[in-house]
Each structure stands twice: as structure tokens, then as C-alpha cells.
Amino acid sequence: MGELKDKAKGLANEAAGNAKQAAGKAAGRPDVTAEGAAQERKGEAQNLKGKVKGALGDKV
């Protein structure tokens, strides 16, 4: 996967995770809130992976 794909997937996961966290808090569902937090962290990792690929020229 290329740099831009990783960054795009990361941003999508971060946004989805934030939405899940908000929905979980609004519904009083800590399980959904935790799932959203995990998805947000996954997105942050994907975004970082894309940045590293960009710095190293997709050799990772």
C-alpha cells in the first residue's frame, strides 16, 4: 500500500473511531466508547505508517 492509501485509511479510521466514541458516550455504552477509542488509535497508527512510507519513499 502506498503512502496516500495508508494516510487515507488512517484518517477514515480516526473519524469512524471518534464517531463511535461520541455515540457510545451519548448512549451510555462504555463498550462502544472503548471500541471507538481502539479504532481511533488504529487510524493514528495507519496515518503514521503512511508518513514513514513518505519519508522513506515507500520502501517500508
UniProtKB/TrEMBL annotation:
It comes from the Bacteria. Pfam families: CsbD. Belongs to the UPF0337 (CsbD) family. Residues 6-56 form the CsbD-like domain. This is CsbD family protein. Residues 1-60 are annotated as: Disordered. InterPro entries: CsbD (IPR008462), YjbJ_sf (IPR036629). SUPFAM superfamilies: Hypothetical protein YjbJ (SSF69047). Residues 12-27 have a biased composition (Low complexity).
